[in-house]
Amino acid sequence: MTPNRLRWTALLLSAICLLAFSTLLQAGELQQRLFPLLAEHPGQNGIYVLEKGEEALLARAWLADQADRRIDVQYFIWSSDNIGTLASEHLLRAAERGVKIRVLVDDLLIDAPDDFLLAMGAHPNIAIRIYNPQHKVGTSKAKRVLNLFADFRAANQRMHDKTFLVDGQVAITGGRNMADEYYDYDQRYNFRDRDILLLGPVVKKMETSFETFWAHELAVPVENLLDRSARPTAEKISAVYQQLHDYAADKTNFTPEVRQALSDLPEKFTALVENLTWDRVEFISDDPGKNLGDQGLGGGGRTTTRLAEALRQAKHRVTIQSPYLVLPEGGLELFSELIMRGVKVRISTNSLLSTDNLMAFSGYSKQRSELLAAGIEIYEFKPEPAIQQDLLERYAQLKKKAPIFAIHAKTLVIDGQQLYIGTFNLDPRSANLNTEVGVVIDNPRLAAQVEAWIERDMRPQNSWNSAKENPNRLAPFWKRVKLGVLKLLPLRKLL
């Protein structure tokens, strides 16, 4: 190389280094933490499984507080309880410092008042859209009934996606919605759930999915759904914002342990990123609407097809955790084929005592004998499992009257090598009606870790083995009666 070329090459490298250093100096704390990590692992993704509810909540809170440019969130449920209110306040604070916020929520179970939705959406940096608004927002009871009769399938097609995207560089997806029970803060009922935090190239693919939903005709701006007369005045908007800030600042709304956890966020996040696994990640998602709808309540979807393909490749064992176990059409045949090939199939699911969805459990109850006869090992979660002592950060304060603990995690491990974490339940609704998202990762160390957690949930102190005992007899009389009635109804395709 000539002296001139060497000089120009050196100058170019210096300029690149200066530009990178300048970018890092101008970036916020989040960018400064992530930039070196991503540079160290080009083309790979940082992966961390959020196994505990409080950990999953604190990760979201810290990311919202550190966001520099934008936050996009997509949820099936966003409640107006303690956690939902605090999450809203975190997003409002981010918007007030200039971060662009977009919130897409399914219509079916939203419980926020109209004036609150309109006040939040009135902020210049916040946009809110409602997916498939046929039940709640801007819909009267009469119109809701009419929607069910006019197009039953469309009214039942919901957005079950759960994604939290920050600055195009970090994301969280998995089973958790925005409500107390998903983060271990409900006093009566909590979920044993699972999320996954991701850095790197996969976040761009998740953003593409979000953009597809955001731009779709099923995602309707909240202000287009509500009557103009319901729109709050400037004084009302200001009052809503102040109420949110006052709530978050009120010490009586938090236990000392929660306040300490919030103050420890920077250190906890540092520990989290130091324990990242780096590998390739495949993001899978359905299209808005799930499918064409020309097959009634059937039709499948991209997520269904991809997970079925993964299962067919199993050689040794399949380990699944799903809150609901109602095999969709073809499911029993697929698992029977695997078992005939010598593949061990184990499923961790809820018992009658722990389930939050009696209707879904009725579908499983009708299938249970067939599943066991096929050779599937089924473990039904206990309502007060020993494992909650390890998973609930505040168990010491709750143990005198510990809440019911139920499975809500949606996870698949194949041959101890391939891992799926996402929103897909093992039921016809996830297979054919609801849109779903998730990630598939080929990483033996990560797969083995998650499989060990599911196996722990299957132990006798945490679950009943369905082949040896039927815990239904331990459930309250009224619950068994309701189950008996539901089993008489032809609900399978809706479960």
* Span of the ends, CA to CA: 69 Å
Q: Averaging pLDDT over every residue, what do you get?
A: 88
How many domain regions? 2
* Order of strands across the main sheet: 9-4-3-2-5-6-8-1-10
Q: Oligomeric status of the shown chains? A: single chain
Please give the count of helices: 20
CATH class of the largest domain: Alpha Beta
Structural class: alpha+beta
Question: How much of the polypeptide forms β-strand, as a percent range?
Answer: 15-25%
- The CATH superfamily of the largest domain is identified as Endonuclease Chain A
Rough outline = globular
Please count the beta strands (DSSP E, at least 2 residues each). 19
Helix content: 40-55%
What does this structure look like?
With 495 residues, the chain is an alpha+beta fold. The protein folds into two domains: 41-274, 2-Layer Sandwich (Endonuclease, Chain A); 281-494, Endonuclease Chain A (Endonuclease, Chain A), CATH 3.30.870.10. The protein has 20 helices and 19 strands. It has helices at 3-26, 29-40, 53-66, 82-96, 114-121, 141-150, 152-156, 202-215, 222-225, 234-249, 256-263, 265-274, 302-312, 331-340, 358-373, 388-391, 395-398, 428-433, 444-458, 477-487; strands at residues 45-50, 70-75, 100-106, 126-131, 163-166, 170-174, 189-192, 195-199, 219-221, 277-279, 282-285, 317-321, 344-350, 377-381, 404-407, 411-414, 418-422, 437-442, 463-465. The strands form three sheets. A nine-stranded mixed β-sheet has the order 9-4-3-2-5-6-8-1-10, sandwiched between helices. Strands 11-18-17-16-12-13-14-19 form an eight-stranded mixed β-sheet, sandwiched between helices. A two-stranded parallel sheet has the order 7-15. Helix 3 (53-66) runs parallel beside helix 4. The longest helix has 24 residues, at 3-26. Residues 3-26 have low confidence and may be disordered.
